[in-house]
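User: Please predict the structure of the protein below. I'd like the answer in structure-token form so I can feed it into my own downstream comparison script.

Assistant: Understood. Taking the following sequence of 269 residues as input:
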Amino acid sequence: MSTPTPVADLHLHTTASDGVLTIETLPAAAQRAGLQWVAVTDHDLVHPELSAPVTVHDGITVVRGIELRVDAGPLTVDLLGYGVEPTPELEAELTRLQDDRLDRGRRIIDRVESQLDVALDLDPKPGLGRPHIARAINDSEARYDVSRAFAELIGENGPCYVARSITPFDRGLELLSESCALVGLAHPFRYPDPEAALELTAELDAVEYYYPYDHWEETLSLDLICDQHDLLVTGGSDAHDTELGRAGLAAAEFGRFRRQLTQTGSIPD
């Protein structure tokens, strides 16, 4: 079964976290993919250059979003918030998370440099993530590409891995619900226990139905979940590079998402 041609890619990352696109280069990447709308969903932060929940940049409409990692008991999942209008409480939590992310990044860098006896050309800054470190390892004298760096050094079982602080699910959902037009579960079939992850959608507005999974048939079970909890469908490429549109929403499904943004005042009617 083929996925529909998307007009909206609602999951991507920029240099504000661990992507390579900037707000300036984003419109051209979207145009190459034939997109009309995109959502910037950087990790644990709201992009500082987006001035409103929805803005237009060189003809591309950009939704201000966020991807927030939360601790749901035995499972860690990612929530996608759209049309963000940050409250002071959300801003305080994101500041705490970014401070922890920066400290964690420094500690991972120190461990890698000690483990490999190399100096990484990487200046820790807000938004620092493991992909930045993996790319720096790849560019160093060490003979590790990005995949091997994750597999053997900085992945969860690696000798240089450092865990980071994660917001509890209930608290994260509360903060995003107060700040966003809608909140959804990201990429449910990337988690070790998709069934447990999907149980969380009973408290959410949406689920990421379209995603560049290896096997399309994985998403078929989502139809029942969407009907059961009256969920909006979202979709996106989760791009950390410049290739947008590998997944997203076609025009018909995007209409419902857009109406939700309109009803909550994120965009004018």
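That's the full token string. The longest strand covers residues 60-72.
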